[in-house]
Amino acid sequence: MKKNSRLKELFGKKLAYIRKKKNLSQMELAEIINSSFNYISQIECGRANITMKVIETLSDALDVDAVELFRF
User: Fold this and answer.
1) Domains parsed from the chain with CATH numbers
2) If you write DSSP's letter for every residue of the chain in order, what string do you get?
């Protein structure tokens, strides 16, 4: 399996790693970005297709450069 075919899964795992490192629950992150807990869960499980705007919002909420979310 090629790395890019797992992009959503890898992104989700990295998001979860950074979120936990910042001591945030999925619910807390969802509240910060004005979204649902379910949506954060779907992203972290690699099931959601997200937009660039969502990536920007997540990186701002976690206080990291957006590119950091793609360092697998």
Assistant:
1) 3-70 (1.10.260.40)
2) --GGGGHHHHHHHHHHHHHHHTT--HHHHHHHTT--HHHHHHHHTT-----HHHHHHHHHHHTS-GGGGG--
Buried b (16+ CB within 10 A) or exposed e, 2-16: eeeeeebebbbebbb
Structure tokens at 29: 């992150």
- Reported as a single tens digit per residue, the pLDDT across 34-72 is 999 999 999 999 999 999 999 999 999 999 999 999 999
